[in-house]
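Handout, page 2. Input:
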Amino acid sequence: TLYERAVERATERGRALEVSLLCAVGHGHVRGARISPDSERPLLGGQEAAVPTEVFPQALSYVALGHLHLAQALDGGRIRYAGAPLPLAFSERCHPHQIVIAREAAGGITTEAVRVPRFVRLTRLEADGGGALAAEDALARLEGLARAEKEVEEVDGEHWVQVHVRLTAPRAALQRELADALARGACDATHLPRLVSVEVERFGDAAVAPTPASAHAELAPDAVLARVWGAASREPVPEPLTRALREAWEQARQEREEELAELPELGPAEAMEEAS
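Output:
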């Protein structure tokens, strides 16, 4: 393989230079390593794009890899991901963010993990077991979080918050309500945690089969709105929302007619092509 040929050349040069250890650096996914799905974007599903540890010949004393965010070691520590030095998603808030220092010692390699200070605190508010909070519980938890924050005399760095909320009906002002709950609990802006992410789960009272796009195309705008709204709530569609939809639809229709009126007239052949 390419790696084997590269190691063979490096070994030859190492003998000439009296180098006893060979190390390698790279970027990729090794089979068996754990991924961070919220912040990494694999090109293929599962571990189809991962390479086996065997591609790194045993002549390599140490292989330092990048790409995966979670610090981890493979092949008895010979292959190591130092991991991302900073959290790149809330799911990484518990990762051991670090750098790894590798040193030559007694004919081998020793490693030392050095933790990287975190200048932003990450908090995820969710129900026991990782489930979603009811909206009112989320509001209370946010207010309590901000109240506890102001009781701390010295707060280092920013505090970012993610909330996992379950809705049983549409709630258009949810983001503002959550931000207001934080503001109510804080004494001033310097002690105000920052709401940076809201993860919403929506559950209807009954399973609603998805409507094909072709079926939607045959429905009036009001009917489409009623179907989508009914998938999440048994309450009727609010009249202001229906009225706003009608006004937007009428404006879009008028703009479309004006655009068509400005087009040059089509000849017979062009008309046939446009219709197709």
